[in-house]
Amino acid sequence: MNVVLIPGACHGAWWYAPVVENLAARGHRALALTLPGLCERAEEQGATLAAHVADVTATVAALDGPVVLVGHSYGGMVVAGVADALPEKVVGLLSVDGFAPADGDSCWSSVDDAMRAWYVDASGRSGTGVDPMPQFDPRTTPHPLASLVQRIRLTGAYRGPQHYALAADPAWAVVSPFPVIADRLRTDPAWTVTDLATTHNVLREGPDVLVAAIEALLAEVDQAG
């Protein structure tokens, strides 16, 4: 089983390093990806949501065997698009304190006014990239604004297991745009929603909480055959 991990806005594959190491030690094949226009790929032009989905779709299609997708924050948009494009290849999907879009949704349309204000204010320097928040890791880079406002196109082709892990730390929950998404999914029988006792930076205290969420999805996939 392949586990492909997509980071959130401004971040690269490096964010998942402890998760990749932990999953590998447990016998899983894990691959973290940096999206075009970010971090070591910052010089790549034309980074839209559609371009991100296409880039990851090409990588996933080339892998041997079935794939479970994990997306943190913005990465939830990307994994939704990839699963829709490759429903015969993707056997499980996990959005970690992130987006879980329907057709026509965008990050912009899915967040609150405070988050939209960050998109606008933090892109004022370049006009094209949303600068990382001050508390972000020094390795982060501006996130392509186009990918946050572009609407996703989904056909509904993916019908496999879908899990959502909400970062439920009380201090984060009062400002987070994601509890609204989690509450919507709790009433959707197609989704399994769990709460994590973490902030949005779910790896701050180490990889164990996220690895457990991934393994819960893997167990369901294995049970489904």
UniProtKB/TrEMBL annotation:
Signal peptide per UniProt: none
UniProt GO molecular function: catalytic activity
Highest taxon of source: Bacteria
Record field: transmembrane: none
InterPro entries in UniProt: AB_hydrolase_1, AB_hydrolase_fold, Sec-Metab_Biosynth_Hydrolase
Domain AB hydrolase-1 residues, every copy: 3-196
PANTHER family documented for this protein: AB HYDROLASE-1 DOMAIN-CONTAINING PROTEIN-RELATED, ESTERASE_LIPASE_THIOESTERASE DOMAIN-CONTAINING PROTEIN
Protein name as catalogued: Pimeloyl-ACP methyl ester carboxylesterase
